[in-house]
Amino acid sequence: MTEQGRATDVNEAARRFAETLAESYRLVYEQAAESGERQQRRAQEFSELVARNLKEQTEASRSTAQQLSEQAHRQQQAGQEFAGESVEAYAEFLDDAFSRYQIATERAAGTAAGVVGAATGAIADATAEGASYREDGRLPYSWLRRDERGGDLGTPGRPFRGGAAASARLRGAQQEARHAP
Q1: CA dist., res. 39 & res. 44, Å (int)
Q2: Does the reported pTM lie above 0.70?
Q3: 153 and 146 in contact (C-beta within 8 Å)?
């Protein structure tokens, strides 16, 4: 019996060892399966989190792009309004300047026409009244012909205020001395 008892003991130990080994494989397999499921859940959660973040960023980017587009449109409209107002103001400035120039030109033309008309009238009056010479051959109005006045004109070459008569030679000498090196 001893050998048979030993064989039974060895068989019993082998059976327990096999059961323990099978139990440990089962535990390892269950833990591996649970770990795989946890990893799969975490991967799914991570994937959903990344997708959610990307979606939020995309929406924020679209919103920002829309706001920038609207702001650019407003700036473009403001620039167009400013340009239009600037062109209007410049056109008004030019119109005002040219209208003042036109008014001044018309006034000058009117004044010139008035002066020409007055001069023409004075000449016509003078020729009508002065067409007849006096008996001595002189015109009745001395201001029309200076050469006939005689005593009214100063003697040429004599300076005002009674100084000595200046000759061309003296004036030339003074100028040469002034320009001499």
Answers
A1: 8
A2: no
A3: yes
φ, ψ dihedrals at 153, nearest 5°: -90, 145
d(C-alpha 178, C-alpha 172), whole Å:
10
Token duo for residue 129: 């009244």
pLDDT at 136: 63
Distance CA 168, CA 39 (A): 124
| 114: its two tokens | 């008035």
Q: Which amino acid is at 180?
A: A
Q: How far apart are CA 116 and CA 123, in angstroms?
A: 10
Q: What angle do CA 86, 104, 92 make, to 5 degrees?
A: 10
Phi, psi of 131 (to 5 degrees): -70, -25
Check residue 157 and report its DSSP letter. Answer: T
Distance, in Å, from the CA atom of 69 to the CA atom of 67, rounded to the nearest integer, reads 5
Residue 100 or residue 159, greater confidence: 100
8 Å CB contact between 133 and 139: yes
- Sole residue written with tokens 């340009």: 83
DSSP conformation class of 136: T
Residue 1 is classified by DSSP as -
Query: Which structure tokens are listed for 88?
Result: 């209007």
How would DSSP label each residue in 20-62? HHHHHHHHHHHHHHHHHHHHHHHHHHHHHHHHHHHHHHHHHHH
